[in-house]
Each structure stands twice: as structure tokens, then as C-alpha cells.
From TrEMBL:
Coiled coil segments of this chain: none
Pfam families: Alpha_L_fucos
Membership in a protein family: Belongs to the glycosyl hydrolase 29 family.
EC class of the enzyme, as a word: hydrolase
EC number: 3.2.1.51
Signal sequence annotation: 1-22
TM segment ranges: none
GO-annotated biological processes: fucose metabolic process; glycoside catabolic process
Protein name from the UniProt record: alpha-L-fucosidase
One cellular component term from this protein's GO annotations in UniProt: lysosome
Any one GO molecular function term: alpha-L-fucosidase activity
């Protein structure tokens, strides 16, 4: 598949983050999984939409420890404040989630169109949100609540027909002297991680698998401390209890049942097999009182569609507070998402990746004989061009209605006339039913440029790479836990290291060419050139900032000139360094072509 072709070019992550998190990421829990046949993959592969819930003592703290407030990853507050384990444990005495209502949580998830729910049984803080015999540092023994919310939630989810699973941080445990991660309290100690696994992690995982009915997933996170052989042994002992329960790839050593991408990571191209993208609704996983940056319903709907268009599941996180209440915007916007799914769910559930690459108007998902066009950017002439849709078309309708749309087909595209009234500007789905042969998106290499949209954003991953030019994934964060993953073109030093974007320019006219890149001061001032149809746009690279473990990458959208397209059709846009440069030009994220109005 095309993704495999691209991934040959892709290099390993360059990590820019706080030292601790960078180290954690390097452990390589991302993207490792074997994707062997597994009974749980049947439900997982068609589910498409999961709900992640981070809930623990950190939810009671809400981003505040003593007089200090923290932003991002509220569940890391103990580590960030370097709170002594004994003192942090006292939070349990005031953790009394009387507002928790399992039936209401499950019903909300169901109404949001969620198909599976995964909740933190134990996060890195070490506190068990279930009744555990292994420790007294759990919700039943250590809090005034004295009840096991996980029992009720597991039952409520099953009543609603949702798959239920537990997140379990198997290695990091800041409460335990031998658990991973806490070096501020238990310093100068030679930690015995195996002892930790034997005395807490593995017995607790067994409790979860034995006491909460059939589980859909154990969502392991941030592995460490065990060899591959030991991890295998742990997995075997757990699988024996519930063979149909899926294990996330973050169990480590490539031994998971499906792939989990990094936090807030969406792969640039479709991926075969079972996988999941993980995003949080606002900027933190665990509740932070002062974090109000919630994704709107439109953002959730488009994110869900984008993940599905690449073949994966979206698991979206909500962080309830210490009383067990969800943030009001999470309730409201998930409800909105659910309403959208009632109308358009057919284009999400049970689909595979789209057969047409992303277009200026949106993305596609597919089922045998059907392609769903997720349209969220309308062409200003009402004509929706679908390049590469050349199979014999049987019908074109607005999904969920009997409204047929006029269409015409040529040798290499289908053009659909959109109705004057557009039902949902966030994303209206058109269903196209076809028969016969339809080329897969991997053969549709060109990227569309048209004057009927505000701009065409073309990711660098779509270029053809020459010489030493290659793509590389850069991971960095602007604040704690805010992971960004950018696939950029780099390595362009000599004119041989050119990259070429195959374009399908649909309309004549003038287009502004904008390069979106990061460039360290040492690389600034080097010369490059954009060429298209004999037109040349020379440019000098601009400095965007130093990139190191303390500074996130900074990108600039640098307009380098205007090109004129006389004749619509297939065109190649080339970017190359000129002779004499000593460094790579830049890390190019995307090119933007903007019709001049
Ligand atoms: O460190 C955790 C983080 O707190 C959160 O639980 C996320 C969710 O995917 N997992 C880890 C980092 O990737």
C-alpha cells in the first residue's frame, strides 16, 4: 500500500519536549503492534468512536497544588509539583465523588454515538479507582466515598451495549518506591521494577480482568522495566483470564493487539489494520478547572471523520472533576456530536479508509460499493469535483435522505452539483453508490488545487522525494502534554535534493505560493527556488527559531510569490535548493496555494 511506500521515506521521531516526556516517548510504545487476528478486533474495527475517561485524585486537584496552578496534563500534577507521595496520598481523604452516576455516564456516551469506553483504573499517580485487595490506596479504602465506581460503570456500559475497558499504567507509579517515575521522593534508591510488577501491577491487572466482567480493552500505557520476554509472560498470564480482551500497543515491545498512535497524533495517510488515534476534548486528559479550550462540535465531527478517512478509530477523552461531574462543554458538545452521528453515522461506523485522498472540500470514507464524501468546505460555484471517482455510479444522495444530487462523470472525475441549501456546514455527507472497478486512493497521487476554495493545503508527505530529501516526523509540545506531530520534508541541501508535488490544477488563474516551514537561524538565508511550468520563484529561507529540548518548533507561512496557470490540468510544482547551500533548506510542513482574488 501507498502508506508503506511513504513510510520507507519516513524517519524516526525527533523529539522535542520536556526531558521527562521525551524520555518516555523514546521508549517506543507508539505505533508498535503486530495486528494479528484477534476476536476483539471484530467490534473494535467497526466501532470507530471511543470515549476515554481520565479520572483519579488529580481530578480533585483540578490543576492546582498548594498555591501553584498547572496547565496541560492535569493527571501529571503530582510529578510536576514534585509532591511527596505521603502528602499527595492525603488528597484521597477529600475525594468524594458523590456526583458520579454510572447510568448517566453510560447513557451520555451512548447518546454521543460512542461505541466503547475506556477509563483509568490506575494512572501514574498510583491511586486505584477500583476496589483492590493489593493496596489500601484505593477508592474504597482510602476515600470517604467507600464504593467502587468501576463496578457500576462496567455494568452500566454493558446495559447500554458499549464495550467497556480499563486504562492501566503498568510501569509508572509515583506512589510506590519501586514503581517507575518517582525519583523526587524515592531518590538514591535502586528500584526493583520486577518487584513492582509482581506485587502490584500484575495482581491488579488480574483483579480487573477477573472482577469486572468481560472487558473490551486493557489500555496499557507507557511501558518500562520489563524485557520483551517478561512482557510476553505477563501478557500470557493475563490473556489466559480473558482471551478476547484487546491489549493496546502500549503494552510495549510491539506486543499489543492493535496500534495506538501518539497522543493527539493522526497518521498523514491511510493505514491498514486496526488502530486508534487518541485526542482529549480540551487541553488536558485529567480535569483542570481553568482549562476551557474545548473542541467545538464541528472540530470533533471533522476529527472523527478525518480519523475514519484514514481507517482508524478516534478515542476522545473527557476529564470529570473530583465530584464525578463532566465539564459542561463536554456534555454539550458530545451530545451535538451524537446528533450528527444519528444522521450521518452510516459514513463512520463500519467504514474503511476513503478511496479518494483528502480534497479541499473534505475527506472520504468507504464501504464496499459506497464512498462517503464528507464535505465541510463548500466550493463557491456549487460544483463539487471528485477526482478519480471513475467507477460506474448508481446513485448520489445526501446521506440519510432520499435527496438525489445531479452529477456528471468524465474519464477522470465526477462532478456533483450541490443543492443551494446546505444541511450542515460542519460536515454534510454525500453517499455515492457505485459498481465496478474503482481505483484506490493510493493510485490517486495528485493533490487538487482550485480557485473555488479559499486555499489548497498540501502536506509535504505528498511530494516525490529526490536525492537526500526525505520526510521525517517531528514531535514537540508547546506546553506540557500538548503533543504535536509534524511530518516534514527535510534533507534538501543540493539542487539534486528536490521535492516535487504532483498537482491537479482545476482552474486557470493566479495562485499565491506559500511555504509553511520551520527553519533554525543557522539555516536561514539559504536560497531555494519554486518552479512550475517554467515560472521561477526564488526565495531565501527565514529563521523561525532554535529547536531544542526546551523550545518547540516554530513554523512560518512564507509567501514566496505568485504563479499563473494558463491551462488547467496536471502540473508539477518543484522546490529545490540552489547550488552552494551548506545546510538543509528547512523542515517543510506543507505548501499552500491560494487563489488570488
Ligand atoms: O502520560 C500519559 C498521559 O497522562 C495520558 O494518560 C496519555 C493518554 O494517552 N498517555 C500518557 C502519555 O502518552
Amino acid at each position: 500500500m501507498f502508506h508503506k511506500m511513504l513510510s520507507v521515506l519516513a524517519c524516526s521521531c525527533m523529539l522535542q519536549a520536556t526531558a521527562m516526556q521525551a524520555q518516555d516517548m523514546q521508549q517506543g510504545w507508539n505505533k508498535e503492534a503486530v495486528n494479528k487476528p484477534h476476536p476483539g478486533l471484530n467490534w473494535f474495527s467497526s466501532a470507530k468512536f471511543g470515549l476515554f475517561i481520565h479520572w483519579g485524585l488529580y481530578s480533585e486537584l483540578g490543576g492546582k497544588w498548594k498555591d501553584s496552578s498547572y496547565y496541560g496534563s492535569g493527571e501529571w500534577i503530582m510529578q510536576r509539583a514534585k509532591a511527596p507521595a505521603g502528602e499527595y496520598a492525603k488528597v484521597a481523604a477529600s475525594f468524594n465523588p458523590t456526583g458520579f452516576n454510572a447510568a448517566q455516564w453510560a447513557a451520555r456516551a451512548k447518546a454521543a454515538g460512542i461505541k466503547y469506553l475506556v477509563i483509568t483504573a490506575k494512572h501514574h499517580e498510583g491511586f486505584s479507582m477500583f476496589d483492590s485487595r493489593v493496596t489500601d490506596f484505593d477508592i474504597v479504602d482510602a476515600t470517604p466515598y467507600h464504593k467502587d465506581p468501576m463496578k457500576e460503570l462496567a455494568d452500566a456500559c454493558r446495559k447500554e451495549g458499549l464495550q467497556f475497558g480499563f486504562y492501566y499504567s503498568q510501569f509508572l507509579d509515583w506512589h510506590e518506591p519501586d514503581g517507575g517515575g518517582n525519583n523526587w521522593d524515592f531518590k538514591n534508591r535502586k528500584k526493583d521494577y520486577r518487584q513492582y510488577y509482581q506485587s502490584k501491577s500484575i495482581p491488579q491487572l488480574k483483579e480487573l480482568l477477573n472482577n469486572y466482567g468481560p472487558l473490551g480493552i486493557i489500555w496499557f500505557d507507557m511501558p518500562g522495566g520489563l524485557s520483551e520476554q517478561e512482557t510476553k509472560q505477563m501478557i500470557d498470564s493475563l490473556k489466559a483470564i480473558q482471551p478476547s480482551c484487546l491489549f493496546s500497543s502500549r503494552v510495549g515491545h510491539g506486543l499489543g493487539d492493535y496500534i495506538d498512535f501518539g497522543d493527539s497524533e493522526l497518521p498523514p495517510t491511510p493505514i491498514e489494520g486496526a488502530w486508534e488515534s487518541i485526542y482529549t476534548h480540551n487541553d488536558s486528559w485529567g480535569y483542570i478547572r481553568h482549562d476551557m479550550n474545548f473542541k467545538s462540535p464541528a472540530e470533533i465531527i471533522r476529527l472523527l471523520s478525518s480519523v475514519a478517512s484514514k481507517g482508524g478509530n478516534l478515542m476522545l477523552n473527557v476529564g470529570p472533576d473530583g465530584k464525578g461531574e463532566w465539564p459542561a462543554y463536554s456534555i454539550k458538545y458530545l451530545e451535538e456530536t451524537g446528533k450528527w452521528l444519528q444522521q450521518y453515522g452510516e459514513s463512520i461506523y463500519g467504514t474503511t479508509h476513503g478511496i479518494i485522498p483528502a480534497q479541499p472540500w473534505g475527506v472520504t470514507t468507504s464501504k464496499p460499493g459506497k464512498v462517503f464524501l464528507h464535505v465541510w468546505q463548500l466550493p463557491d460555484n456549487g460544483q463539487l469535483r471528485v477526482p478519480g471517482l471513475t467507477a460506474r455510479i448508481n446513485s448520489v444522495t445526501l446521506l440519510g435522505t432520499a435527496i438525489a444530487l445531479p452529477w456528471k462523470q468524465s474519464a477522470d472525475e465526477t462532478v456533483i452539483t450541490l443543492p443551494a441549501e446546505w444541511p450542515d456546514k460542519r460536515n454534510t455527507v454525500i453517499q455515492v453508490e457505485y459498481s465496478g472497478q474503482q481505483p484506490d486512493w493510493s493510485q490517486l497521487r495528485t493533490q487538487t488545487v482550485s480557485k473555488h476554495y479559499p486555499q489548497a493545503n498540501i502536506p509535504a508527505i505528498w511530494a516525490i522525494y529526490n536525492g537526500n530529501a526525505h520526510t521525517k516526523q517531528y514531535t514537540f509540545s508547546h506546553y506540557f502534554g500538548d503533543w504535536k506531530h509534524e511530518n516534514c520534508a527535510t534533507g534538501m541541501v543540493t539542487p539534486n535534493d528536490a521535492i516535487i508535488f504532483p498537482l491537479e490544477v482545476q482552474d486557470e488563474g493566479d495562485y499565491k505560493v506559500i511555504l509553511d516551514y520551520a527553519c533554525e537561524p543557522a539555516s536561514a538565508g539559504q536560497q531555494g527556488i519554486v518552479t512550475l511550468l517554467g515560472q521561477r520563484l526564488p526565495f531565501l529561507t527565514l529563521a523561525t527559531g532554535i529547536q531544542d529540548s526546551h523550545r518547540p518548533m516554530a513554523f512560518i507561512q512564507h509567501p514566496v510569490g505568485i504563479i499563473h496557470i494558463q491551462e488547467p490540468g496536471k502540473q508539477n510544482l518543484t522546490i529545490k535548493p540552489v547550488e552552494g547551500n551548506r545546510q538543509a533548506l528547512f523542515q517543510l510542513k506543507q505548501i499552500i496555494l491560494e487563489p488570488v482574488k
